[in-house]
Amino acid sequence: MHGSFETSAAGSGEESGQESGETFYATGPLEGRRVRLEPLTVAHIPGLVAAAREGRERYALTDVPADEAEAAAYVARALRTSPGGVPETVPYATVDRHTGRVVGSTRFCDFEYWRWQERYRRRPAAEPDAVEIGATWLALGAQRTGINREAKLLMLTVAFERWRVHRVRFRTDARNERSRRAIAALGARLDGVLRAAAAGYDGAVRDSAAYSILDAEWAEVRAGLEASLSGGPRIGGREIGRPRTGGPATGCPA
Prior knowledge:
By secondary structure, the protein is α+β, with helices and mostly antiparallel strands. It is built from six helices and ten strands; from the N terminus they run H-E-E-H-H-E-E-E-H-E-H-E-E-H-E-E. The strands form two sheets. It has an eight-stranded mixed β-sheet, sandwiched between helices.
């Protein structure tokens, strides 16, 4: 579709689909012109706390740690693995390359492994058929800077061009209009609203608005993103567009 690529980290594996477990999901850092997505570690806790102090009134519907203890628990949940050692999520700290500051977090989560009849299986059973991008939040100062759009372009490229998933899903609290606009601006389509889908972060029973991008739509979505940007992020030295604007999207409860 767009040719092969490498992430900016060495040792992240080939596109042959032969990796397994932790190696398959180890994307390494994903780097653009404005944003760097660093694999989340405990070393990011102070930066997360500092970023989360900005505009906390905007986080009523989003899981954003308020202090160091909450940030430590947040990171620990994000780094959980299955009994077989496979990550439950692939989380990142979102770093503003212009300042070097942590400005938020995002992750891959809710990996889906479909039950194919063996004669129709197109990939190893250990590789995901679909994934969600979510648990995204940004410091107030990083919103509407293009950081979110560039980060999503990097992540969508990994999902569709390295992992070769059939679908990427986004979910958000149906009341979060800012998040819904940001998801739609990426080119994702609304699948519907799931009623009484989960506990909201404000204590309410929330409806979840579900969006998705399919592999068959990715070329058009990517072209649209690239057309809206100019001269921007790179993966393995290949330009894939520059950010414009866009707010954060949420989902994937931590």
